[in-house]
Design brief:
Layout (H helix, E strand, L loop, with lengths): L5 E6 L18 H20 L5 E6 L4 H8 L4 E4 L5 H12 L5 E6 L7 H10 L5 E5 L5 E6 L17 H11 L4 E3 L9 H13 L5 H23 L1
Parallel strand pairs: 1-2, 1-4, 2-3, 5-7
Antiparallel strand pairs: 4-6, 5-6
Length: about 230
Amino acid sequence: MTPLNRTLVIMAKAPRLGFVKTRLAKRLPEQAVSELYRCFLEDTITLARSLDGVEVAIMCPDCDVEDLRRETRDSVRIVPQIGKGLAAGLTSVFELFAGRRKQAVAFNSDSPHLPASVLQSAFHSLTESDVVIGPTHDGGYYLVGAAAPHQGLFTRDGMGTTNAFEALVARARNLRLSVHLTDPFYDIDEVAELERLAAELQLTPEKAPKTAEWLSVWRSAGAQSANNGGNE
């Protein structure tokens, strides 16, 4: 398979206030969450580009295309999805990039700490399996790949819920598709996961340098606030 037959697609949104990482925004200021997501996205693009022989694209809602072009300075292809919601976005990915000996792998924009080897192995697994899925520890999934646009694989049922992974696997089985699973991983939806990422990147900031820098400032501000509170 030639390099041009593999596309790595980042599922993203424009980092608008109140529209990204909304569960984190319940605990953190919206401005901070927007800045953090911007770091996630920049580091995720760098991660995607680290793979040899793979085209990189961003799939996003139609209303986010122009904002993301400005954010990325036209450094990566931005593609509007057809329809609304994650199910529509993933359907758009595989209708556009998969099939006719072409493989596509889509993954989250909030996983800049994902090892590049996981993405590489996802493509490799598609030579033997119809679908590859990367489960998250909370019941969702951070990655899905296919070499054909399997109709009915993505629906709104179960999307964004704690059983999204099980629902996706069940639909794949019902369609008689073979499934390969990558290693379970964690994405960033809650403060506890953000703290875990901060601890990880404190030791290995080169994994996601923009995110590591933001988290270092965030943790320092939290520690300073705690110290000030204790001195009052």
